[in-house]
Fold each of these.
Amino acid sequence: MRGFGELEAVVMDRIWSLESAATVREVLDDLGNERPLAYTTVMTVMENLRRKGFLVRALDGRAYRYRPAKARSEYAAELMGEALANSGDRTGALLGLVQHMTPADVASLRTALEAASRERRMRR
Amino acid sequence: MIAALVLVSYAAVMGTMGAATLTRSSWTTRAPRLGIALWQAASVSTLSAAVLAALTFALRLSVLNADVAALLHTCLTNVRTGYATPGGSVTTTLGLAAAVLITGRATWCVLDAVVRQRRELARQLQVVGVLARRDPERGFLVVPHETATAFCLAGRGDGVVLTTAALAVLRPEELTAVVAHERAHLRGRHHLLVAASHGLARAFPGVLVFAEAEKRIAELIEMAADDAARQRSHPAALAHALLAVTSGPTPRAALAAANRSVEVRVLRLLSPFAPLGSGQRLLITAVLTLLLATPIAIAAAPAILATQADYCLIGRAL
């Protein structure tokens, strides 16, 4: 299970690009030339993704069709929302570089920075 | 009984005025890691004082039997007198209940905070896993997004994450500084410090020392990570990176009250400050040790004093 991390990213990327629900066979074919993979490998990866909640499947005839649970941009937006949140009941899981500030704060900070650089230049 | 009262007073003073004093001291920005340690010591000191107060209050006289007295080479009556509390079994029950409640609450809330954080981290790492691609040479993960930011996620497969916008706006030296800053968070396991202080603050809302500790520790870990980044790049590089990252479109969640801490960090990076001398560090370490030892010393004082007495009280047990 552990080695599949990178594969999961690749398969998810493909399914997002395909823009329609896909069977294991279709994903396999799409990957085919660049990556020689076994059918069972791709199937396992897609099942893992489904168990983790990234894919949803529906029976279509005799095969399952998998589609993404959410759009790529939705995940990115959620993740960034958490990264940029200033307060709230965060668990502190994610340590962002900086707390984001209002435009007024940014402006005053810029002024301070410029003043400080001017001072350094004059001292030289 | 006196020990219990002294401990309660100590906890009250430490919890309020002690916290206020520590908040005002400016040396913490010059030695962030020491500052973090001191805030933790203050929290532990207050908590242990409260628990020990309850325990000494509850000390059942019959526990102090002849064996204990023999251990201390002292007279049993002296020891009993030192800890005696009027009220008998009622006060004992109350005291024990209080001790158990306080310890239980603190433990539960801290563990809960740590567990929730782990779950959150695992989920976020999972999402990053499918969204991000790894930069082959520099090792960090890149997520496509139009807001420039960087963060780190601790846990299995932990790593530093940057957005595509951040990569576009940061210059090479600034990028190095940012990655070094985030790596410092991971190495120092700062997320655990945040979880622990958050847990205590939630356990006892309104107690100044725990609430302040949570805020200050969050600020100080950023400064500690800033300091780590300085070893890899010029401090001005990180300062410019901080500014570059904050100038992006402000997301809705960030419209909170004005946040001075970024300004403090940038100015701190730009103006050279004298690090603490070894004499000062020694003093602070001594204070730290004192904070941790004092509650225990107060709790043990009656027993110790009893050993000093060269007479033995004759009287009925209380």
Amino acid sequence: MFKTFHINDYKENKKLTCDKEIINFLNPLNIYIPLIDNNITYKPLVNINEYVCKGQVIARSNDGNNFPIHSSVSGIVSDLNYKMWTNNGKLITCISISNDFKEKFYYKKYDVVDKTSFIELLKENGIVGLGGSGFFTYRKYINSNIDTLIVNGCECEPFISCDYRSMIERINDLIEGIKIIKKYLNIKNVYICIKNNKLELIKSFEKFINKDINLILLKDKYPVGWEKYLVYKCLKKKYKSYPFEVGCVVNNTSTIISIYDAFVHSKPLIERVVTFTGTCLENPINVNVKIGTSVNEVLNFLGGINNNILYKSLTVGGLFTGKSMSFDNICITKSLNAIIINKLSNNNFNSFECIGCGKCSDVCPVYLSPILIKIQYLDKNKNELKELKAMNCINCGLCSYICPSKVDLSFFTNKSKELLLKERQNEHK
Amino acid sequence: MNINKYELYKEPFIRRANNKFYNTKSIMFDYFISLIPLFLSGIYKLGYLKFINSKNIYDLFKPIIFILLGGLISYSVEVVYFYIKHRKENPFINSFNSFSFIPGVILSMIIPIYTPLWILIIGCVISNFIGKIIFGGFGKNIFNPALVGYIFIISGYYSNINNNINDIISSITPLNQLQNILKNNFKIEEVINSYGGLINLILNKNSISIAESSVVALVIGFMYLCIKKVIDYKIPVIYLLSSFIFCFFISLFININPFVFSFYNIFTGGLLFGAVYMATDPVTSPRSVYGRIIYSLFLGLLTMFLRFLSNYPDGTATSILFMNMLTPLIDNFGAKLRVKDFNHKKILNVLSIVFIYLLLSIYTIFKINEQKIIEEPKIKIEIISIRQDFKSLENNEIKFNYELKIEGNKINLTCDLNGNILNGLNNINENKILITNFLKENKVNKKSTSKDNHIGYISQVNKNNGLIKFIAVSMGYVDNCIIEIVYENEIINSEVNLSKETQLDGGLEHSNGSINDLIDLGNGERIDVVSNVTYTSVALISARKAVDDYIIFLKGGNNE
């Protein structure tokens, strides 16, 4: 019993890219690997002017996991302190490697015989969630009571279609990946969730459906790809923090395709599909790029942007949950799934008084009241924020979307969530 | 490789309000458009139909003048405010942007159409100034501004408004009749029939303000608002349901047909208009979902509570203002209730609301029943005849024999001059208090202008060897009119004494002539001396009749 909301406008925007095939851009001049990703710091294992091969481990994480990052090209390490923008809006120190275009590949084959070795495969190939979360995939499978796999192919944000195109073009690889996971992790049921208006995709899935693999069709609403909603729809169960509490795992389709690549071709996660779209681009399309490519190189490859338009904005990630950037020397990490460049009109900045219509409370999927949270945040009342359950916010952005007075509601809800998290961390110390 | 620069702006980057057909201005505009059917029906019913009856051209344009004047005055008040506060900006645009004309327009729709214009102007100034500006302007007011002005007008200028009525029918609204139904035992079916039936009552054949002029126009406006998602449909629906259920519940305890009573209460007064346009005002109603449900539940209860138990004919305005005061409290409570985990505390919170609701309902039922017990049903009492008991005159006692018909039964009583019952109280089966009050109202010793209700009596008798002197008395305009008779087998002397009647009513000349010269009992000949429609002349006629009766008694006739 969770709420979703039907977005009436912005329906046409997926059509900008979802009917074109994926193109490749696999020869950037340089790649940049950030050393801080998703609040985890990485320690570089290479030095300047060292030669690295494609697929070689060049950094490992500093916490107890020792998670690897691989180089996507072969070449020489040129700098260990290069600053680039990343998709959390900050300038981060990166390792920069200049490409020698020889594509010298170093791969290490892992023999998989059982669950433990499969998890080792997932870890050593650097597989993370490609839907935007960046969460280490192997940690989802460590628990022993897992018997269901839910494959998330919803892609509920407008403008983005990278998952959809990968599914259409590599559906056989997706099914093979599902079968691999099923075999080595003893999974009984698989649910594939897609939206019910993707008719071509539904037809292609038909021959793979059997008693174990089910196809669940969801309505075209937002936020359907939310984990709790999917688990409730497929299994009718609710959980508190993680899906493994009810014995299931939720994975993105692109993640499963990369698991297939890792298992069959011994290829670590060094490429991903990114959607480049927006009203300012002449040729919006999905591009398969190497991890670490800079965004302005890809834009140049696509034909540049229209410089006649004065006011344009660049958004990293989807429009509901992404961040706005002023420069486009952004390095593409594993969790970046779209770059949207839109025209801005002049009346975007005026915010009016709250008239108390209550639409924000009507539309919240987690039943919060954002306007009351904003008022309490401005007074810094932590107890009231706790009772209003500001911690439950899923950062979907619907409250700001629906507000007729353009009040910055999701901004304040995020801030109050951060405030409560900080206090909880202080308490633990 | 060249790096491009972009505009940075705060998230989120996708807003429905960027669409120019969906933002605050369009919401207020839709709110205004939905009032148009009511404008048209008000102009038709209260302007055109009245013009046909009265042929007064001012009546035809009065509704339009009301609406325009209301909007203009409230707009100008805020123009002055913005001019004083922000001198550098354009005050006309600022006032328009803060939707200052809406309280004035709504106020002009809810006051009676016969209000003088200067009262409307005062009301608009008060509603914008006290209801909106001193709280901080648009979006910060606590009370509904139109209702602030309305309550100010009704409390201060009620008599000025009601002195202006041309139509006697309009002053007795169906809601005033409600007090009669509850306290004075009017039958509800008779009241409804006097308005032409329930359907006619609903279709408002006799409305006094633009807001109540048509239910159909209001329903059209409501549906337009719901389709455009300007208001939350829950508030009016729950408000009306709550009042309906409350009336239903109460009518079961006071022996009135529940459906008729409930529909009568909902469709009269400003309840429908208040539920759709005033209670749903976004600034003053709660923002959380559960908060709105609690708000409208208590609104329904409070409106009916004030209607039944207070002196206000229509409790809508006061109840909405009261709940507006409680909005922040309800909001906080409702928002926290919705996200609570389902445990015993949540159930306790929900039950506390239900408990308050039930408590208020039970209190109302008790109070209404209490008022009903004091007023007993009226008994039919008729006086058949009053005669003086001449036998008791021997003992110098003045007594009267009353023959009454109480609910079809004949009862005989003996009373004194002032209507106190001396004998025969045990014969009465019905309410003795009522009969005692009735007798006191119809006592012998009171003045009257009608021969039928008035009697005279003999107050003194002196017997001396066959010579009988007696005095006949009857109450005139100020005091007793006296006729002194000396009798011995026939009237020897008669004298009229009007010295106590210091203020002669009707210009009667004091005359000492013979008694037969003075009064004429039905021939019509000598009536020019004494008219028989004034207090004094009626008193003389009654005293003369008492003399005749006593003479019959003295001669030994039956004292029937």
